Amino acid sequence: MGLAVVGSFAALVSAIRIPLSQGTARIRWTLAAALSLGGGAIWSMHFIGMIGYRVDGLDLRYGLPLTGVSLLIAVAVSALGLTLVASHRRSIGWLALSGVVSGLGIAAMHYTGMAAMHVGGTVTYRRGIVVLSVLIAVAAALAGLWIAFRVRTGRHVVAASLIMAAAVSGMHYTAMAATQVQAGAGEEEVTGTDPISLAPIVCVIAFSVLAVVIFAAMGGVTESGSFTVARESSRHRRPAPPVPVWSRPPTSESQTRSG
Q1: Which of 29, 87, 175, 246 could bond 17 through an S-S bridge, CB–CB 3.0 to 4.6 Å?
Q2: What are the residue boundaries of the structural domains of the chain, listed by start?
Q3: pTM
Q4: Alpha carbon of 43 to those of 3, 62, 97, 128, 153: distances in Å?
Q5: Dist CA 173 CA 185 (whole Å)
Q6: Cα 233 to Cα 225: distance, rounded to the nearest angstrom
Q7: Position 246 pLDDT exceeds 50
């Protein structure tokens, strides 16, 4: 769950920058938040969590192509949700639509990752628990997107990160509870990559990317001492006071008259 917390934190501190940015800077912060949320908090947590999944007497391996597709799905739906909410921050309807789309995408990411699992048996799912896992994914996406653009202080960001991480973890373990594996009649050759060999690589890459994102996002936010000032500075920036007459440099006309 630690990876989910760090990923959620990185996503939130990046999302704070989205409404304050324009042009390419806005795109960069959106991608940073999507990569942190989709790739770090959601996909990496799911992948690491899958390492603990075991079926007695069966060897588990993963196909890299579908595993990569599941990562792309997670990042893409996170980017879509963040973009929609950032563009329509005051619209409950757009928030709901973004949450549903992102939640369905998260569920699709999980079950695509499960489809990449190679096991010497047949994988089936309990429909009722699958539906519950999808509902949890939608609720988690709604909560995450709502929180992402409404946090005000550093304390709120930390609390929101814990809430989002708990929601992501809850969806993962609920979806895993829906999984049933029936061993095959004979010994089947299982192809693919051992997840244990990939886990250290995923952890190192994920934490490295998240550290860079957090460092970049926190650089400007903490200059004022709080997230509130950084967020509100562009809305309530006071105009510069007028320059007093006696402090203005003399014009050519005034110089002519004095001469």
Answers
A1: 29
A2: 2-258
A3: 0.76
A4: 10, 14, 22, 23, 27
A5: 28
A6: 13
A7: no
Structure tokens at 152: 């005000």
Q: Which two tokens stand for residue 99?
A: 């949450």
Spatial neighbors of 65 by CB under 8 A, at least 6 apart, are: 116
Q: What is the pLDDT of residue 181?
A: 83
From the list 163, 138, 137, the residue with the least C-alpha distance to 9 is 163
Q: If you write DSSP's letter for every residue of 66-83 in order, what string do you get? A: HHHHHHHHHHHHHHHHHH
- Is beta strand 121-125 parallel, antiparallel or unpaired with respect to 117-119? unpaired
Which residues are registered as beta bridge partners of 122? 182
Nearest residue to 60 via CA among 49, 51, 47: 51
Q: Are 42 and 109 in contact (CB under 8 A)?
A: yes
DSSP letters, 87-140, are HTTT-HHHHHHHHHHHHHHHHHHHHHHHHTEEESEEEEE-HHHHHHHHHHHHHH
The H or E element containing residue 24 is helix 23-34
> Could you give the percent of the chain with pLDDT greater than 90?
11
- In this structure, the number of other CB atoms found within 10 A of the CB of residue 162 comes to 15
- Mean pLDDT across 132-158: 80
